[in-house]
Design a protein that fits this description.
The protein is mainly α and about 400 residues long. The chain has 13 helices and 7 strands. The protein is rod-shaped.
Length: about 400
């Protein structure tokens, strides 16, 4: 409200009018919410004069500066509690008497009391002329940056005040905390914009579905396992043990990496290329886990204790342990009513169907025709063959057909 009232006084000064009786009672709020400054009964229209800069004594007026109306008063007029010291005596007055009254009214609104104490007009005038400003009340939390411009506008000498009321309004509205909040808000907006720009330009790469699948295989041969095997080999006392140890260690490392690559290939066949079913993936992983367990047992045996005979056969043992083994066949029961289909299907691996050949007559030699193409084992380019499953179907013959 005081900012709007000060703007109205500045407009009056721009028109060459000095109010001379500004106080809270002369400020009203209209029904439309606009602030009005009333009671221009003692106002005077004066000549527009550019005042010299008070910071530089003896300086000439600046023709580009804002002009202030100046009037010649023959007697004191106004409300004593809001009158400037120079307004109490006849002489030349300017718009700075309204600046003084505005500062008194704003001080009273902020602190709940006027800046100069006194029970009557003469006592208030003496305190104002001596510049005895009351200390701020403790119960009023007014920032120091707001008190400083008010104390300057309450100076008894007009030259010590602001050159115009507009300068006082600018200082009162200059809130350091608001400026800091605006700077912080601007920094936050800039930071969020930068993050959004980085997020749009650099999207996170998708995580591969088979990342870390080879970790169990790579953990079979570590630096600690290498050190144990090397210690056990050196304890045998054989000549050229370091070179033999290096050969065995390289072979074990190569086997572990190959086992990890097989695990990744099996995972990618199901999760990336979608060439095999989840059941076939489980069977392949079971086979690879069995090979990994055999390799882990061999590494533990090589590093357990010095054994010269085992050290001599280490490379052969590694080759046998890592060789693909055929899993035990799943027991199946055949019956006539199921028409040759197994009553229990343990996996999704392709199995040759039971052919429907006529039963040969008693004593006759059964014919041995060529196996049809649809009953043959899958070619090497089929997904099941590429999957590397441990089980492979046996070729069918009429003599092996169950009866």
């Amino acid at each position: 409200m005081f900012a709007a009232a000060g703007a109205r006084l500045c407009a009056a000064h721009a028109a060459g009018i000095v109010h001379r009786d500004f106080k809270p009672g002369n400020v009203m709020i209209a029904r439309d919410g606009r602030v009005r400054v009333l009671d221009f009964g003692v106002a005077r229209v004066g000549a527009m004069v550019v005042a010299p800069d008070p910071a530089t004594p003896g300086s000439e007026p600046d023709p580009d500066a804002d002009a202030s109306p100046r009037i010649l008063a023959s007697r004191a007029m106004g409300t004593p509690s809001y009158m400037a010291p120079e307004q109490r005596r006849p002489g030349v007055h300017d718009a700075r008497v309204d600046q003084y009254a505005f500062a008194v009214a704003l001080y009273e609104a902020l602190y709940g009391e006027r800046p100069f104490a006194g029970d009557h007009a003469d006592e208030i005038a003496d305190n104002a002329l001596a510049y005895r400003v009351r200390p701020p009340p403790r119960e009023r939390d007014v920032p120091a940056w707001l008190r400083r411009p008010l104390l300057r506008a309450l100076q008894p000498e007009p030259g010590d005040r602001f050159p115009a009321l507009q300068a006082l309004l600018v200082e009162v509205a200059r809130d350091p905390a608001l400026r800091r909040r605006r700077v912080a808000l601007g920094a936050v907006v800039v930071g969020l914009g930068a993050l959004a720009l980085v997020g749009l330009t650099r999207r996170a790469a998708p995580v591969p579905p088979c990342r870390g699948v080879d970790a169990p295989a790579l953990e079979l041969w570590t630096d600690a396992a290498r050190a144990r095997v090397a210690t056990a080999f050196r304890a045998t006392g054989r000549p050229a043990v370091d070179g033999w140890t290096a050969r065995v260690a390289d072979e074990l490392q190569r086997r572990a990496r190959a086992l990890g690559a097989s695990r990744v290939a099996a995972c990618e066949a199901s999760s990336v290329r979608h060439e095999q079913s989840p059941a076939l993936l489980d069977r392949r992983m079971t086979c690879l886990d069995r090979r990994g367990a055999e390799l882990a047992a061999l590494v533990a045996r090589l590093g357990a204790a010095p054994d010269a005979a085992l050290m001599d056969r280490a490379l052969d043992a590694v080759a046998r342990a890592c060789r693909r083994s055929t899993p035990a066949p799943t027991p199946r029961r055949w019956c006539r009513r199921c028409r040759g289909r197994p009553t229990r299907r343990a996996s999704a691996i392709w199995r040759p169907p039971r052919p429907r050949w006529p039963r040969p007559a008693p004593g006759a030699t059964p014919p041995t025709p060529a196996t049809p193409a649809r009953w043959r084992a899958p070619a090497s380019s089929s997904p099941n063959a590429r999957a590397g499953a441990c089980w492979s179907p046996r070729p069918w013959s009429p003599t092996s057909m169950p009866r």
